[in-house]
């Protein structure tokens, strides 16, 4: 996907998140994030938006703490004085991020926390997915079915999870014998899928792979795969063929959180 496509996705997802949060009310629990109420979701996502915008707008090259200037969100319904302030604060945080990313030069130099072709490509991609996943959280809190996720964007989100987050060493799965897990979308033309190799060493993801077949294959339409791997849909939305123990090994190791 191109930078402009990620920005357009981010532009669309933020208001959907805010609208769902306001509909749910700030006291509403977030079923997909069991320890959170809607106020926590707004404070977290808005703080991340402001944090990301700071790196891009100021060209910061060192890590920094999250912004902690959000209103407390003590109003219960999102329309009272403090509740309304928190929803408005989120909307402004999101709008500022979109503006900063639109204005950023292609040769931007700033800090990132995962490999990417460029810092700008990193931040537009990461914030588009951050906002989309938390938009689903807000809609769950409001009792709404999640709005559609474009299959190509969803497949990109699976790719980010597999090759970037897992590549940072979060996955602790080990196997005394070599085992392979294949993950693929069912509705994205030309998608080569992903393969995870388990050995006694840290697991290794690759795009495509497993030409000789995998011990376990997991598949679903891209949007369902994306949300299930981010634990926003139950894993029973996934089709599984082969040895379920291989999938369980991955999930039990802290993957897909």
Description of the structure:
The chain has seven helices and five strands. The chain has 257 residues and is α+β, with helices and mostly antiparallel strands. The protein has two domains: 145 residues, Up-down Bundle (Four Helix Bundle (Hemerythrin (Met), subunit A)), CATH 1.20.120; 100 residues, SCP2 sterol-binding domain (Nonspecific Lipid-transfer Protein, Chain A, 2-Layer Sandwich), CATH 3.30.1050. It has a five-stranded mixed beta sheet. About 2% of the residues have low confidence.
Give a summary of the structure in a few sentences.
This protein is an alpha+beta fold. The protein has helices at 3-24, 38-58, 81-103, 119-141, 151-165, 222-229, 244-251; strands at residues 179-185, 194-198, 204-207, 216-220, 239-242. The longest helix is centred in the middle third of the chain and has 23 residues, at 81-103.
Please supply descriptive tags for the structure shown above.
257 residues, alpha+beta, Four Helix Bundle (Hemerythrin (Met), subunit A), Nonspecific Lipid-transfer Protein, Chain A, 2 domains, 5-stranded mixed beta sheet, 7 helices, 5 strands, 47% helix, 10% strand
């Amino acid at each position: 996907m191109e930078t402009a496509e990620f920005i357009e996705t981010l532009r669309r997802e933020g208001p959907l998140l805010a609208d769902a949060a306001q509909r749910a009310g700030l006291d509403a629990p977030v079923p997909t994030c069991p320890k959170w109420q809607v106020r926590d979701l707004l404070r977290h996502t808005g703080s991340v938006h402001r944090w990301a915008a700071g790196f891009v707008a100021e060209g910061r090259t060192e890590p920094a703490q999250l912004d902690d200037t959000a209103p407390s969100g003590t109003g219960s319904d999102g329309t009272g004085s403090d509740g309304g302030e928190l929803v408005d604060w989120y909307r402004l945080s999101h709008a500022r991020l979109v503006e900063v990313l639109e204005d950023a030069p292609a040769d931007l130099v700033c800090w990132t926390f995962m490999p990417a072709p460029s810092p700008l490509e990193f931040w537009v991609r990461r914030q588009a997915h951050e906002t989309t996943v938390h938009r689903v959280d807000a809609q769950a809190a409001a009792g709404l079915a999640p709005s559609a996720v474009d299959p190509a964007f969803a497949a990109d989100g699976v790719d980010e999870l597999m090759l970037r987050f897992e590549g940072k060493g979060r996955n602790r799965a080990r196997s005394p014998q070599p085992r392979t897990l294949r993950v693929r979308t069912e509705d994205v033309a030309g998608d080569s899928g992903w393969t995870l190799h388990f050995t006694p060493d840290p697991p290794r993801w690759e795009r495509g792979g497993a030409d000789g077949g995998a011990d376990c294959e997991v598949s679903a339409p891209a949007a369902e795969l994306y949300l299930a791997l981010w634990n926003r849909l139950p894993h029973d939305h996934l089709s599984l063929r082969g040895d379920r123990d291989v999938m369980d090994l991955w999930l039990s190791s802290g993957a897909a959180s």
